[in-house]
Design goal:
With about 290 residues, the chain is of the alpha+beta class. The protein contains 14 helices and 10 strands. The protein has a 4-stranded mixed sheet. The protein has a 4-stranded mixed sheet with strand order 5-9-8-7. This is FRG domain-containing protein.
């Protein structure tokens, strides 16, 4: 079936959603369902693919942020994390503004982040799906060679380190902007359980969404209508895709339980009675870091 590049798909039911999430996942060569896509869930369909560094609005501060992060955290970090790419992943993981964007191999984990904040259930959400295999055609030669030698479709920090050991060096590998997808080291259970992948632009001021428009890279967007969010949320919880699993520890457990025992019937009654501009019933739970 022919799909339009960059298509925005509006679904209305849980059943439709299942079909769309796994589109283009059949691999004819392997005769298996092996998707080349990564997914990113957004609670609001109006959100752009902006990194935390983009939202900071000061990309020139990136090297200063990283330098000081490394300086003050050295005692807590094992020596094998010395690669700049491991440091970048670690900084992103702990909330430092970076050029990285969080993605996941799991469409259900992306759905979790689309429905994690129940104070935004009146907004349509969105899932971005990008074919990371297609992005390899736009890599600089040095990085293409490493991917070919490894027989891999995605980078690790160690693979990137073989070609380039600095952010400045990355931008000098090729005149045109390019995107890289790489797997972070297994820093903790959160990285592992979220089936995490990072994307990174060679130019930190360039949005991946803008770059994709002019490239032969398959991608699509799914609009998650607000009326479907509670059904998705409850079915994900039943499938064990929730904060208790994705954010191991007491904070994730407490956030999951708070939602699990939330009585939406009371809130529906309050919405009818409350004046406009009333504060939300409770604070938002943790969501994707970027």
């Amino acid at each position: 079936m022919h799909h339009q590049q960059g298509e925005t798909i509006e679904i209305q039911t849980w059943a439709e959603l299942q079909e769309v999430l796994y589109r283009d996942s059949w691999n004819d060569q392997l005769q298996r369902f092996r998707s080349g896509y990564v997914y990113r869930g957004l609670e609001d369909k109006s959100y752009e693919l902006t990194s935390t560094l983009n939202r900071l609005g000061e990309s020139h501060l990136e090297k200063h942020l990283l330098r000081n992060f490394r300086k003050y955290s050295h005692k807590q970090i094992r020596s094998e994390y010395n690669s700049i790419w491991n440091w970048l992943a670690l900084a992103q993981h702990h909330g430092l503004p970076t050029r990285l964007l969080d993605w996941t191999y799991s469409p259900y984990v992306a759905l979790h982040f689309t429905t994690a904040d129940f104070n935004r259930y009146d907004e349509d959400g969105m899932i971005w799906a990008v074919n990371y295999v297609d992005t390899q055609a736009h890599l600089p030669d040095q990085l293409s060679l490493i991917i070919e030698e490894e027989g891999s479709h995605i980078f690790t920090a160690e693979m990137l380190e073989r070609a380039v050991d600095s952010l400045t060096g990355l931008s000098h590998l090729k005149k045109d902007d390019f995107a890289i997808f790489f797997e972070p080291p297994s820093i903790d259970d959160r990285i592992v359980n979220q089936y995490a992948v990072f994307s990174m632009m060679s130019n930190p001021n360039r949005l991946l969404s803008d770059w994709l428009r002019n490239r032969q890279v398959r991608y699509f967007k799914i609009i998650i209508p607000s009326h479907l969010k509670w059904e998705i949320r409850d079915k994900l919880d039943q499938s064990n895709i929730n904060e208790r699993v994705l954010f191991p520890g007491l904070d994730g457990l407490a956030t999951w339980l708070k939602r699990h025992y939330r009585d939406v019937r009371l809130e529906q009654g309050q919405k009818r009675d409350e004046p406009q501009g009333s504060p939300p019933a409770s604070p938002a739970p943790p969501s994707q870091s970027s």
